[in-house]
Amino acid sequence: MAQEEARGMVARYYRDAARGLYEPAKTNPSFFEGSSSGTALVDNVNALNAAKAQKIRVTGETKLKSVQHVKTDLTMDLKSTPPAVPIVTFLVCYDVTGVNVVDSKGKSIVPASRKPTGLRLVGVVNREYPSPDGWRVEYVQPKADSC
User: Fold this and answer.
1) Which of 6, 74, 77, 117 is the most exposed place for a label (fewest CB within 10 A)?
2) What's the Cα-to-Cα distance from 122 to each of 42, 91, 117, rounded to whole Å?
3) How far apart are CA 89 and CA 68, in angstroms?
4) Beta-carbon neighbour count of residue 102 at 10 Å?
């Protein structure tokens, strides 16, 4: 059950990461809190701030080619140092061929060298476990430039 709930949050995270940048000037940074926390939230907010500053926006969505379960640890011990929270880890292969980044004139700024796919290790935590509503992507670590 936890694995499937966390897997659903991976899809939402990638969807929100793009949608939050469709119209950066209208996006509140708190938008990303529904699908991310920790460094993943910081990454999304930094991307939003950069998009606002550079007057760029995203079109399209990242497609998930595969979401492979790696590990589940449902330990909950908030008094330990550091606190232990339930975490489900996935290896995610994504495809960005349908994603474009455009400047204020609508011109693409995506470099020709961008790889169409990537592989990331994604950690999804739940600080409210066993509530199914507490899952958030906590971190996204690059593993390979393609998959």
Assistant:
1) 77
2) 15, 6, 15
3) 9
4) 15
Dig out the tokens for 102 from the structure: 């455009």
Bridge partners of 72? 88
What does pTM read for this prediction? 0.96
Amino acid in the structure at residue 13: Y
Q: Which residues of the chain have pLDDT under 50?
A: none
SS3 per residue for the chain: CHHHHHHHHHHHHHHHHHHCCCCHHHCCHHHHHHCECHHHHHHHHHHHHHHHHHCCEEECCCEEEEEEEEEEECCCECCCCCCECCEEEEEEEEECCCCEEECCCCCECCCCCCCCEEEEEEEEEECCCCCCCCEEEEEEEEEECCC
pLDDT number for residue 110: 97
